[in-house]
Amino acid sequence: MINEYYNTLEVDKTATLDEIKKSYKSKVKEHHPDKGGNEDLFKKVQKAYDVLKDEQKRSLYDSGTILEDNVEEQIIDIFTDILLPEMVDNINSGASMLDIVLYYLTQEENKLKQNLSELIWSKDSITEIISYSDVNSKSKIGKKIIDNFTNKKNELTIQINKISNRISLIIESKKIAKKIF
């Protein structure tokens, strides 16, 4: 459930970082195992705060790209899905591990950016068609055509958000790779 972290901290989705922090401190005191609280609730509060305090993670969480407990797993998936097969093939090339990792992450990022550009162009084209079609929307057929284009536009918006968030995860993975290697 996309609002679980907000519900755990009992804050609105529009809460400021200060409001999140204040609620977090209150919940930590309430649920701390050393103070007789519930350890599972304490861990849920900690996970919620870990995501919501970080602007990038919060944005990904709000978009539905990061769902609850799998923030780290998604970044690991990027490494294993994109990098592992390629790294095995190129490990003996003489390049450093960091160079190989960054190269393949950048390749994937560029592919996604190209795909993103195409989706944005398609969405813009559909938006233009809808605006020109509004004049002819009086008939049932005209309304149905506009509805179909509007649905396609909404689908493209979802795809655009997912790809944008995947690009953000790749950028985060590059930062992690620089720390690891």
Which structural traits does this protein have?
2 domains, 7 helices, 181 residues, Helix Hairpins, mainly alpha
Report on the architecture of this protein.
The chain has helices at residues 4-9, 17-31, 39-52, 55-63, 71-90, 97-133, 140-180. The chain is an all-alpha fold. The protein has two domains: 4-53, Helix Hairpins (Orthogonal Bundle), CATH 1.10.287.110; 72-180. The longest helix is centred in the last third of the chain and has 41 residues, at 140-180. It is flat. The relative contact order is 0.10.
Radius of gyration from CA coordinates: 22 Å
How many distinct beta strands?
0
Helices and strands, in order, run as HHHHHHH
Given the helix and strand composition, which structural class is it? Answer: mainly alpha
**Count of folded domains:** 2
Mean pLDDT: 78
**CA(first)-CA(last) distance:** 35 Å
Large-scale geometry = flat
Helix content: over 70%
Number of distinct helices: 7
Largest sheet: none
What order do the helices and strands come in, and which of them pair?
Layout: H1 4-9, H2 17-31, H3 39-52, H4 55-63, H5 71-90, H6 97-133, H7 140-180
Summarize the structure.
With 181 residues, the chain is mostly helical. It is built from 7 helices and no strands.
